[in-house]
Amino acid sequence: xxxxxxxxxxxxxxxxxxxxxxxxxxxxxxxxxxxxxxxxxxxxxxxxxxxxxxxxxxxxxxxxxxxxxxxxxxxxxxxxxxxxxxxxxxxxxxxxxxxxxxxxxxxxxxxxxxxxxxxxxxxxxxxxxxxxxxxxxxxxxxxxxxxxxxxxxxxxxxxxxxxxxxxxxxxxxxxxxxxxxxxxxxxxxxxxxxxxxxxxxxxxxxxxxxxxxxxxxxxxxxxxxxxxxxxxxxxxxxxxxxxxxxxxxxxxxx
Length: 254
Hints:
Blueprint lengths: L1 E6 L3 H5 L3 H8 L3 E5 L5 H7 L7 E5 L9 E5 L5 E4 L4 H4 L4 E5 L4 E6 L10 H19 L4 E6 L12 H4 L8 H12 L2 E3 H5 L8 E2 L5 H4 L2 E2 L2 E6 L6 E6 L11 E5 L2
Parallel strand pairs: 1-2, 7-8
Antiparallel strand pairs: 1-14, 2-4, 3-4, 5-6, 6-7, 8-12, 9-12, 10-11, 13-14
Helix pairs in contact: 5-7
């Protein structure tokens, strides 16, 4: 089974940059999108050429903001949105789809923002999200994918020293939040298979960052420890353009 996840930075803009053909040629059984920046009906319309996929999305109340969508060749057994807490539900950040062997949580984690203005909210979110994942694991094994808006280790960003505790995505609060998610019972699949590989999934659109590979690894597949032996491959598809992020990939064998 192949699952791909991509923060497309606007699904309608991404469709104009060949998103449909990219999804069709990917061979993915499940394709997760984050930051769709569209309402549910707009997502469905933008992806209408993907008639071979079942499309489930969750949009934010605020238009043109946030949003996630999970596309699958097989219809999920169950679908839920949010993490069961009212203050988080407005932002359209989580959709969970249940399949036979696992539940898949597609997430667009809140950014701490310019000047770290939302860092306190981010810390609260991380704790609530960890609790949600813990509850989900009681039903069956869980896979979590998406844009986590954090570089977990120094190897996960090009300039760790100059960004530490100064820049959104690499503060100790966010690092600890990510550790808390892993402690629930998850494996960072890419780092599990590639402990020393330097590879990024996000680059600022400024200063030619992508051409210089001054990037961050913000996009992950966290795999339930109970599925450890089913992990076949995990990769970051840096060659694929069309967003300030690139897709990440997970392959499993059942």
